[in-house]
Amino acid sequence: MSPFFLDASAAIAADNYVAFTFFIGTMAMMAASVFFFFELNNTDKEWRTSVLVSGLITFIAAVHYYYMRGYNLETGGGSPTFFRYVDWLLTVPLMCVEFYLITKKSGGTVGLLWKLILASVVMLVTGYFGETIYRDQSVLWGVISGAAYFYIVYLVWFGEVAKLATAASPAVAKANKTLGWFVLVGWAIYPLGYIVGTPGGLFGMSAESLGIGGLNMDIIYNIGDAVNKIGFGLVIYALSRSASK
Ligand SMILES: *C/C=C(C)/C=C/C=C(C)/C=C/C1=C(C)CCCC1(C)C
């Protein structure tokens, strides 16, 4: 496999929607990264790290999408599960860093950051097991992953993150509410992809029972990433603007 997959990119069939979303995902992540990086110059010093992290998240995704797009084409529609999870293992902890950065001034600790990161790593590693090595036990691994996911939801909505964000400022509290919706609704797109992509589904739900049997796992994951990486970054960007004035 050539590292740049240049030949394959010339051969996307018009009805190959999966490849299409990999391609557009690459471009969208690249554009978002350029935007966040260039905006650093116009960002107040105290918010610069937050906006930088937004750019790192989309930049890491852009590089992975470039490879995933090539993998998908060169394998004739294969699912780049390995690249997918490497991407998530790098970008989701960086989203945890965003929660730490916005609550730091009102008392957010490194201990809180580690709690978030640990939960996200458990969520992703167990999801990877269910999708790859232990596919026959996808329900069990999906449930463990889901528990870690709900713990993050709890921290952001009602736990330490919520309390610190409220104490920080109305702008931070508002941004944390919006980020909370991303975690609750935006991140819930991923378990749907998992249900479609594994034999057992999740929580006893199969793709057929949900009426989404015809969907493609990678399209679901690609939509999830566009919403959650770019959207999440824009919320941080908006906070950096409103809090600067
Ligand atoms: C940029 C990438 C993001 C925000 C990825 C988030 C991924 C998840 C929230 C994945 C969650 C999963 C479950 C809650 C259960 C089934 C297995 C997963 C890993 C798909």
How would you describe this protein?
With 245 residues, this protein is an all-alpha fold. The chain has one domain: Rhopdopsin 7-helix transmembrane proteins (Up-down Bundle). It is 76% helix and 0% strand. It contains eleven helices and no strands. The longest helix is centred in the first third of the chain and has 30 residues, at 45-74. Bound molecules: retinal (RET). Residues 88, 91-92, 123-124, 127, 142, 145-146, 149, 187, 190-191, 194, 202, 225, 228-229 line the site of retinal.
Structural shape: globular
Rg, alpha carbons: 18 Å
- How many structural domains are formed by the residues? 1
Helix run count = 11
The amount of helix comes to over 70%
**Secondary-structure class:** mainly alpha
Mean pLDDT: 93
Could you name the ranges where pLDDT drops below 50 across 5 or more consecutive residues? Answer: none
Given this structure, which CATH class is correct? Mainly Alpha
Tally of strands: 0
Give a short account of the largest sheet.
Answer: none
* CATH T-level topology: Rhopdopsin 7-helix transmembrane proteins
| Level-2 CATH architecture | Up-down Bundle
Beta-strand content estimate: under 5%
The unique ligands bound to this protein are:
retinal
CATH superfamily: Rhodopsin 7-helix transmembrane proteins
Give the helices and strands as they follow along the chain: HHHHHHHHHHH
Separation of the first and last Cα atoms: 51 Å
